[in-house]
Design goal:
The complex is a heterodimer. Chain A is an alpha/beta fold. Chain A is built from six helices and eight strands. The chains are: A alpha/beta, B mainly alpha.
């Protein structure tokens, strides 16, 4: 399968406000895009459109040959603004659940080890800090092995070591031939291309 | 779909989960009514089916508003939507988990409460069967309301207004079947209930999935 993302003439409208018009870009295997721009410029909306949650007002998105929202969604690894860590479940249970749901036979302990959560693997997530929940989300993203990562503020709440970890995950993903698009306000810490949304002011 | 079913059951039965809450609410309402109506066993037996059916519906609704909402708020719903399962399957699975953790326990508790109301054994049997057949329809139709209101703040208050009119036939047929036994008649209420529940259970996942899709785009 030719893994590439082609966005052509995309127009995004939210609440009758035009976010972007005629946006076109492409990303190929092994590429990391850093999606930048001021608050409210439509970074999250663009990610949600690529994932197939939002329908664009105009334009097409093709991902690995799939044009329809459902087909694109099956390729997407999602790291959203919220961490999807159920307060009643432990990190181990969260990862085991998603591995089962996505039909992935992954090594849960290794995934927890990789983000430094092994020691609190059986603690309910309600006791985790924001940074620890973000680490759990990173572990899940890696565990699910989807070819296209869409990340919304992946560095938020992470400490320096956590940010280095996120950079390491992103470059390993790119090296494996995946695509990653990260909406961010901070440098990702790896070589990547910039995609600037909106003009300041 | 098994991982999702098991997770939802686990969330409902863990501390602070909705299963015990629904069961407690059901028992509390059913206990309160005789205190209000008085200890007239004949009268209580007449109203038992209606009271228990209404109490069961309200108890089930109590936990329905969180069916999709908690997953929506913490971002889990995005990840569910991107999984290999279709949203229809996800909705059907969540409905099944809800029924297993509320409808089924309520049904199992109902014979005891029926006895408390002085229902004769045969009527208790019919009541239990009617709840067994009818509560899946309550979970299913409630899921449509839960999906529609998942992004609404305090949607739990709107949910009953949306869903109760849809559920009314189940209450009418369910309580009607018990009434018929008490009157020594036979009517088709149980068959109508079964037909209603079957249609509701089969069609609701599609409606709920459509509503979830709409809200994910919101």
């Amino acid at each position: 399968m030719d893994l590439s993302l082609n966005v052509d003439g995309l127009t995004g409208i939210r609440g009758q406000r035009v976010l972007f018009r005629g946006l076109s870009f492409r990303a190929g295997a092994g590429q990391v895009l850093s999606l930048e721009g001021p608050n409210g410029v439509g970074k999250t909306s663009l990610l949600r459109m690529i994932a197939g949650f939002l329908a664009p007002a105009a334009g097409t998105i093709s991902l690995g040959g799939a044009q329809d929202a459902e087909g694109r969604g099956r390729l997407v690894g999602w790291l959203g603004h919220h961490d999807a860590a159920k307060p009643q479940l432990s990190p181990r249970e969260v990862l085991a659940f998603y591995a089962g749901l996505y039909r992935i036979a992954g090594d849960i302990d290794a995934a927890l080890d990789a983000v430094g959560l092994r020691a609190i693997a059986d603690l309910p997530c309600q006791y985790l800090s924001a940074g620890q929940k973000k680490r759990l989300a990173l572990a899940r993203l890696k565990l699910l092995r989807r070819p296209v990562w869409l990340l919304d503020e992946p560095l938020a709440a992470l400490d320096a070591a956590g940010k280095a970890l996120a950079a390491e995950f992103l470059s390993a993903h790119a090296k494996d031939g995946g695509i990653a698009i990260a909406a961010t306000h901070e440098p990702l810490g790896i070589a990547c291309e910039k995609l600037q949304l909106g003009s300041p002011g | 779909m098994t991982p999702l079913l098991l997770r939802d059951i686990r969330l409902a039965t863990r501390a602070g989960g909705s299963a015990a809450l629904a069961l407690g609410f059901f028992a509390a309402v059913a206990t309160l009514v005789p205190l209000g109506v008085g200890a007239d066993l004949k009268l209580l037996a007449r109203v038992a089916a209606g009271v228990l059916w209404v109490a069961a519906v309200l108890a089930a609704l109590l936990s329905l508003d969180r069916l999709f909402q908690s997953d929506f708020e913490d971002g889990s719903l995005d990840l569910l939507a991107l999984s290999p399962l279709s949203l229809e399957t996800i909705a059907a699975t969540k409905i099944a988990a809800h029924w297993l953790t509320t409808g089924l326990p309520l049904t199992l508790l109902s014979p005891l409460l029926g006895m408390m109301f002085g229902l004769p054994p045969q009527a208790i049997g019919v009541l239990t069967v009617s709840l067994l057949i009818g509560t899946p329809a309550v979970s299913s139709l409630g899921a449509i309301g839960a999906a529609l209101t998942l992004s609404v703040r305090r949607g739990g208050l709107i949910l009953p207004l949306l869903v109760l009119p849809l559920i009314a036939p189940a209450v009418i047929f369910g309580a009607g079947a018990v009434q018929a036994v008490l009157d020594g008649l036979s009517n088709g209420a149980m068959l109508l209930l079964a037909a209603f529940a079957l249609a509701a259970t089969l069609l609701s996942p599609f409606a709920a999935a459509a509503a979830v899709r709409l809200n994910l785009a919101g």
